[in-house]
Amino acid sequence: MTNISKRALVLFSGGQDSSTCLAWALERYDYVETIGFDYGQRHAIELSMRPQLLQKMRALSPVWDGKLGEDHIIDLSLISQLSQTAMTENIAIEMQANGLPNTFVPGRNLMFMLTAATLAYRRQLEVLVGGMCETDFSGYPDCRDDSLKALQVAINLGMASRLTIETPLMWIDKAQSWHLAEQLGGQALIEVIRQDTHTCYLGERGALHPWGHGCGSCPACDLRAKGYLEYIRSKEK
Fold first, then answer.
1. Does 16 appear as a known binding residue?
2. Where does ATP bind (predicted)?
3. Which structural domains are found in the chain, ordered by start?
4. Is 21 flagged in the annotation as binding?
């Protein structure tokens, strides 16, 4: 799986998907850096989880430890100033008239990827890795494969570069994401993801559920819990 000619930058939030993507990149590339974004998110606890999560990822494998480079945190609080959403304001999660949930933050993933590309250009990193997924998602248009492919073209035209955007979770569901994590790092990685990542939109840690920490009722918790249950059931067959 290793591609030693490539250096990657992983969009790493501290959640299940980005942690799985980080493991995927560490298996595939020779050198990997990480980037996270502080955009005034309601679940800002994910940012505080990142340092210990990165240390635990290092501890899983001496090879991964040797490949994992610098971590970057970027202030994108501008995002929360541009729009009011359930991800940035203490408001109820609900569907909007346009058919999208109000957890959709317009332009967020586009800005994330463009910012990551700018950093990658300066750091001479050739691959951007993100956890966007079109299989298990809430209809967010900036998670779609077409959107990311178009963005890759625009970035490379605008920077005269040859950056590649990789989305290893794009066509798999949450249960398959748990299976992928197991394939990449065994049960040890499953436990790190289960115990140390944060996905809950409400920023709640609380008790440790079988699938991880969280409120257990928001869309992110619901998706994660259902995927974990399906993953466990498939292993029992």
1. yes
2. 12-22
3. 3-236 (3.40.50.620)
4. yes
Which amino acid belongs to residue 190?
Answer: I
19 labelled ligand-binding: yes
Q: Is 83 labelled as part of a ligand binding site?
A: no
CB 29: neighbour CB atoms within 10 A? 24
- 3-class DSSP state for residue 76? coil
Residue 218 among known ligand-binding residues: yes
What whole-number distance in Å separates Cα of residue 19 and Cα of residue 197? 8
Residue 151 annotated as lining a ligand binding site = no
More confident residue, 182 or 92: 182
pLDDT in tens, 12-53: 999 999 999 999 999 999 999 999 999 877 667 888 889 999
Strands (E) in 109-186, as ranges, are: 127-129, 164-166
Does 143 carry a binding-site annotation?
no
Of residues 237 and 45, more confidently modeled: 45
12 marked as part of a ligand binding site: yes
* DSSP conformational letter for 43: T
**Which region, left, alpha or beta, applies to residue 216 given φ > 0 means left and ψ of -120 to 50 means alpha?**
left
217 is in an annotated binding site: no
